Amino acid sequence: MNLALRFPKEFVWGTATSSYQIEGAADKDGRGKSIWDVFCETPGKVSNGDSGLIACDHYHRFEEDIQLMAQMGVKAYRFSISWSRVLPNGMSDSINQAGIDFYNSLIDCCIDHGIEPWATLYHWDLPQHLEESEGGWLSDSISDRFADYTEVCFNAFGDRVKRWITINEAWVVAILGYGQGVFAPGHNSTSEPYIAGHNLLLAHAKAVKVYRSQFQAEQGGLIGITNNCDWREPLSDSAQDKAAAQRALEFFLGWFADPIYLGDYPECMKTGVGERLPLITEEHRNLIFGSSDFFGLNHYTTMYAAEANGDTAEQSVYGNGGLNEDQGLDLSVDDSWQTTDMQWAVVPWGCRKLLHWIADRYGNPDIYITENGCAYDDELVGGEVNDTRRVDFYASYLEECANAIDGGVNLKGYFAWSFMDNFEWASGYDKRFGIHHVDFDTGERTPKQSAKWFRQLLSVS
Ligand code: PNW
After folding, report:
1. Which of 20, 120, 172, 302 to mutate to test the pocket of ligand 1 (most atoms within 8 A of CB)?
2. Tens of pLDDT, residues 258-276
3. What is the pTM (predicted TM-score) of this model?
4. Which atom number of ligand 1 is nearest to the Cα of residue 319?
5. Pairwise CA distance, residues 334 & 340, whole Å
């Protein structure tokens, strides 16, 4: 059966981006610095010394970008709001009107083109001032700063934005930012990730409380969090390897989803992390439990998990799996699996298994895949980018999404990462995730074959 017809009529098809990766204009119109501006200035942290200073210049070219989305036929655009563009020093007592104006124009442009704006409130670009004055995600006060900032956003944009995502990928912030040090703010610690993770959860929950108590009834939107998770397949049928894979998933996704859907951290984390794992007090639980109207999921790849014996795979671009020692497991990949330019394996069935795992563990919530995609460096030749591997990637992952829906999973939407090639964090501009090609010298956008493939798919659905 035609792939498009396997998805319900009301399925939300979209593309996704984030502020620091595409906007540029980092020093324009009153925007304050974020931790990523500073991280990029630190020698050796980002490939080629790249930064988001100019990026895709979406700040000036957003109308063209929304038009390209409209041509594709997508229903939704997931973008993120730069905290320091709205509040230059992160504090809600000083609002940058130019920042508010920019997001107003962007949101209006989406709506004019029949595209529903999905706004992420935090996609890693913490105002540098809050890093310096409060200690960033390690501080007890940061979740209140975040709640104040989100209130400004609900006030300014909530009349038109009906889908809010509080935090993008707390796992990445915690593990890559505070554990492995490969993302801002670049700390290497075995305890800080758990503190940062706890504060990210509290920040999410406090923002949801603000929305629900002051805005939701009147504005009528929904709010949730997006977490990322790979699939972990047991390396063998042994009970140990099955337990290792389960543990890996609980450390990855359960870390953030269990408190929200089940009210506490997973048991295996309490055991494995011990005193380094903050306690979810009664007060925290009251805030966090039940604090998501939908389940946002970013999914990229799959690895095998096995009981630890020291036999771990070579690291992929951003390292594998987190603080593996806490989890007592080894990760590996199958030599037969294809990989993307990130060295992430292409394993479509892993996506289906993960969707079922979420449905089973968390009471079959409404799930939105808010990111899925791949990096391939296909060249622009004669005005075309023939990215057949990306087309195959999307076709095969969407096939498994359709299978999951057939199997009873409440998957309600899917956002391709990314709308266009952009600043891929520590990899700079070397890794191209876009379904639109960007020439970073001229800013010119070109729809790749994959964008045309989506257009065709969506014309049938
Ligand atoms: C996500 N990992 O990042 C982000 O939400 C995007 O901003 C990013 O461009 C995209 O995926 C591709 O990297 C991730 O190591 C970074 O597991 C690292 C991991 C996962 C997601």
Report:
1. 172
2. 999 999 999 999 999 999 9
3. 0.98
4. 15
5. 14
